[in-house]
Amino acid sequence: MQKEIIVLLGGPGTGKSTLINELVARGYCCYPEISRQVTLEAQQRGIDQLFLEQPLLFSEMLLQGRIKQFENALTEPDNIVFIDRGIPDVVAYMDYIGDAYPEHFSKACEDFKYSKTFILPPWEEIYESDTERYENFEQALAIQEHLIETYKKYGYNLIEVPKDTVENRILYILDKI
């Protein structure tokens, strides 16, 4: 079996981390979303919202972290690796806020390709804001559109995961692999 590096994507609050946690509980190799870690590290240094205050620096840190996740996934002994958000997410968010970014952001999207991409649709009933998720639901919808546009621009076929129980969403994903 060839290596499958699978990304779960979607706007904020669509259930990606919940699915990753369940996949981990079932023994799958999974890499968590790293933006919360980057945000928390910045907060410890006194920067409340690095993405809002220094979006390019934040995005550069995310890009490097996601490239490292991809490279690490290639060396995993597991044939299937799930990742919570992918490299093109960085470009989508920069486009969402309307900021320019260096060419190497786009090059990374072209150089590191995921095997499959599962997109989780916006779901207002499960959406929650917290200290790291500052977007409201309307902003989450706009981000979702940027994600779809960006992933399609880089040639991905997005597989939409239906709104359903965690169990049924997991079964849907596993069935499509």
From TrEMBL:
Residues 6-169 form the NadR/Ttd14 AAA domain. This is ATPase. InterPro entries: NadR/Ttd14_AAA_dom, P-loop_NTPase. It comes from Flavobacterium limi.
